[in-house]
Write a structure and sequence with these properties.
Elements lengths: L5 H12 L5 E3 L14 E2 L10 H25 L10 E5 L2 H16 L5 E3 L1 H7 L9 E5 L3 E2 L2 H14 L3 E3 L14 E3 L5 H5 L4 E11 L11 E6 L2 E7 L4 E5 L12 H14 L7 E12 L6 E5 L2 E8 L9 H14 L22
Parallel strand pairs: 1-7, 3-10, 8-15
Antiparallel strand pairs: 2-6, 3-5, 4-5, 9-12, 9-13, 10-11, 11-12, 14-15
Bound molecules: glycine.
Glycine binds next to loops.
Length: 354
Amino acid sequence: MVGAGPVGLAVAWRCARRGLRVVVYDDRPGSGASAVAAGMLAPVAEAYFGEHELTALLVESAARWPGFAAELAEASGVDLGHRTEGTLVVGLTADDLTEARRLWAYQQGLGLPITPLRPSALRDREPALAPRVRGGAVAAGDHQVDPRRLVAALRIAAERAGVVFRPARVGALSEVDARITVVAAGCGAAALTGLPVRPVKGQVLRLRAPGGGPPGFRHVIRGYADGESVYLVPRDSGEVVVGATVEERADTEVTAGGVLRLLRAAVELVPELTEYELVEAVAGLRPGTPDNAPILGTLPGRPDVVVATGHHRHGIVLTPVTADLVTELIVTGEPDPALAPFTPDRFPKEPRWN
Ligand code: GLY
């Protein structure tokens, strides 16, 4: 296994439990996109135009999350911070709401559970929302988990299942001596496999509620605010994750402009956030693909290499279904039909993608 992010660790854990001998290579386990990610399990709020097959996979994986979380918490003894209050999607201005309503109509057309709310119902649910917020909807099935705890739990569970960790960077597939090599290296998969995975930068902030208490709201809030898109993820610990920029670049610098845009949108939606401590500002690199969907399956011409990467904005929510499908492929050699839209051979060799 190359890569000790959530996907690599979950596949390693599952494979070890199926009786395979698993070695995980990573010189900095858990230091990739998952260390920055907010942990939204949001198949509905993140169902975008033209991504039907990806949306179906997100829905399937989100449905597996409660069982996966319970099993992992039991195997590791770690509380994953899995919370099920749901997500409010809100619009600040009439323009913001127009854009949001168009997406809700699309999502409802797919049969996804998103329910518009009257402004009064919105405020009954979250009094911390700014009076300026014009309207919103609830995606009750869109939940959250803490990705840092997820990685910690997976490492413990994997170790307990017999997985061996090697703190080494793999620069080429020839460096790995294994019957099957799984590449779950996020953006690093491009150099190892030639697949079109590109870094997509995201800046994320972490705030802390004053007085050591929990944040003043309980739902995940995904907001459109004067044309900016932002999400606010409250944790029991008092932390609020504010994310994220989406930038087509490969550096991990935190910029004043990025922080300004995130904070401005955040406090427009929930004014009390101005009183919160700014604890962390960080940037990570999502492993993006040409169609925004993950790359899952056997590498063309290399029956000994299985790829599980390119999860872009959805690595955390897609962890359970990826682990199940990829483990099954490794153990049986037979690809589940659900993998068909996501195989590595779906991209033509030309043009050069990244
Ligand atoms: N899924 C949230 C993000 O990528 O920012």
